[in-house]
Amino acid sequence: MALTRIPITLASAGLVLAALALPGCKGKSAAADDTDPTAGARAAPPISLPVVGAPVRKGDLVLSVATTGQVRAAAVAHLKAETAGTVQEVLVHPGDRVHRGQALVKLDPRPFDLAVEDAEAQVAAARVSYQDNIVPDSLVTGHAPTAERRANALARSGLQGAQVNLEKAKLDRERATITAPFDGVVDEVNVADGERVGVGGDIATVVDIDNLRIEAAVLEHDLPLIRRGGDAVVIPAATPDHPLHGTIEAILPLVDSTTRAGRALVRVRNNGVLRPGMYADVRLESTRLPDRILVPAPAIIERDGRPLVFVVKKSHAEWTYVNPGRSNGVDTEILPDSSSGEIPVQPGDTVLVEGHLTLTHDAPVRLVSDSASGQ
């Protein structure tokens, strides 16, 4: 029995020794891997963060007075009947775009045609009466009637009055067709086919929505800062991302005694969104600083109480301290450094305006568009 158990014990011991040797081999291999000089080359490359950049530019910094205003149409025509009649045809509907001189409503022309014919007959009769008053005298004396004789004959014949009545009848016939006084859009129509209208009756309303003006309230202490002809930026609530550029057309003389504000009129071309009655934010030019180095206002951030911008160079964001000057909320001027006297950014440089709030110096970045960054 003992002889048969000894080989099994020796075999078991061999297996144990082999098992103990294996970890040693594995540990040696791991150590070799740790000292492999090519291990760092296989490390993952740094991740480039998506950011949005904007160029540094040189230009005029326009400082402005911020306020609000209401959109008003440059022209609103409440058309009324200038002669009495019966509506024969309504040619437009609310919302239709019309052109100057385009017919909107027609009255029945027959009464006006008859009035013109009657006036023409009265003129013909008066002309005959006038001739009857001057021709006999000419035949008897053989001389042309004097100027005084002609004037008396003309007054007795009633020719002048008949001619005036004819012109009035023709004018009434023209007024029987109500036309658009300017290019615009029909806001409302107040009559229907077959309706009888009197002089002064409401016909339709036409609004010019292409040429608009903004009535902007300006506090009295800001009134001296703005000027006629200055630039204006209008930011409608309906399209805040698409501001409109206009011109200060007038500064009205009266100041409201309650609000202590005056009014400035801003002329602007409609972008297809503005409607009379809307409200909008308005920035009125107050001061223009020429030839300044400008960066977008969102590009400037603070670290440790010092203002800086991130400038993109070779796909890296370089932390650059700046000395910001005045700002209009859109652009900020960069002034020379107080110690070196140099401006650290130049026109053509790209500074970050989005995705830069948590960046570190020399961070790898990847410029993307606004739409891509929003995704």
Notable characteristics:
5 helices; alpha+beta; 6-stranded antiparallel beta barrel; 375 residues; disordered N terminus; disordered C terminus; 6-stranded mixed β-sheet; elongated; 26% helix
Describe this structure in words.
The strands form four sheets. Strands 16-17-18-22-1-21 form a six-stranded mixed beta sheet, with no helix packed on it. A six-stranded antiparallel barrel has the order 2-11-14-13-12-15. Strands 3-10-8-5 form a four-stranded antiparallel beta sheet, with no helix packed on it. The chain contains five helices and 22 strands. Mean pLDDT is 84; it is low at 1-35, 37-41 and 371-375. The chain starts with a helix and ends with a helix. The protein is elongated, with a radius of gyration of 44 Å. The protein is 26% helix and 39% strand. It is an alpha+beta fold and 375 residues long.
